[in-house]
Specification:
Blueprint: H1 2-127, H2 133-138, H3 140-146, H4 153-171, E1 174-183, E2 186-195, E3 199-203, E4 210-216, E5 223-228, H5 233-243
Antiparallel strand pairs: 1-2, 2-3, 3-4, 4-5
Helix pairs in contact: 1-4, 3-4
Length: about 260
């Protein structure tokens, strides 16, 4: 009986130990499953964070690529502008040099024209009183323009050219003019035939008086000196008749004019 009791106790202890071991194993498995769940949840969270980070990086990379492309395009535009500006700057420098050269030439030409004008004015102021009366009358406006210090250079030069051309033309032709002459202290309306710039013949309309004239320099009385020449009266009247086509052309022998020291 004692033995049976001992056996029963041992069996009971064995069952208790087995039950305790089983309970411990179930607890360990439960803890292991919980740990596994935690690890899986953490892994999923990490994967999600990694995926989100990767997506964000892809978006950021795309933005960076676009920014880089925009920067490169802007850089190319800027380089083109710089090259264009450089070319324009070079062209502007060339134009400035050309303009500076043209300006220097224009200034030199203006100085040359000023010198030419000054010489022309000085010459005509001296010779104006000695010019024939019809020439002075025809060129009076040009002479005033020429000697006007307030007129523009181009206007004065134009006047100088016109006066020079008129003077040259007058010197190559005969010019008939009617003008008032002072002869022997009396004023006479006479016909005057200018033989260029340096000589002239005159006569009264009825031919009763005739003579010659020439420009002379007598200080403040510069002008033309008129002298009656009775000895050459017929030849002078004949010259007028030929010029006016009142008689046939023929040779006329005219004496040289001898100038005196005073006006008659």
């Amino acid at each position: 009986m004692y033995r049976n009791l001992l056996t029963s106790v041992l069996l009971l202890l064995s069952c208790s130990v087995t039950t305790a071991q089983a309970s411990s194993t179930e607890l360990q498995r439960a803890q292991q499953l919980q740990r596994t769940d935690q690890l899986m949840a953490q892994k999923l969270a990490n994967d999600k964070a990694s995926a989100e980070l990767s997506f964000s990086w892809q978006q950021e990379q795309a933005s960076l690529q676009q920014l880089k492309a925009s920067y490169q395009a802007e850089k190319r535009q800027l380089q083109l502008k710089l090259r264009s500006t450089g070319a324009q700057s070079d062209d502007a420098a060339v134009r400035r040099q050309a303009l500076a050269k043209e300006q220097a030439n224009a200034e030199k030409t203006a100085v040359d024209y000023q010198n030419l004008l000054a010489q022309g004015v000085a010459s005509f102021k001296l010779s104006w009183p000695l010019l024939p009366e019809p020439l002075k009358r025809a060129q009076l406006q040009e002479y005033r323009q020429l000697t006007n210090d307030k007129a523009e250079l181009a206007q004065r030069l134009t006047a100088l050219v016109n006066v020079l051309e008129a003077t040259r033309s007058f010197n190559q032709t005969f010019t008939l003019n009617k003008q008032l002459l002072t002869l022997n202290g009396q004023d006479w309306q006479a016909e005057v035939l200018y033989l260029g710039l340096a000589k002239a013949l005159f006569r009264l309309p009825d031919g009763s008086l005739a003579g010659m004239g020439s420009p002379v320099t007598l200080g403040e009385s510069d002008g033309w000196l008129w002298q009656i020449n009775d000895q050459a009266k017929d030849e002078i009247n004949q010259t007028f008749a030929i010029y006016l086509q009142q008689q046939k052309v023929s040779l006329v022998d005219l004496p040289l004019l001898k100038l005196e020291s005073k006006h008659d």
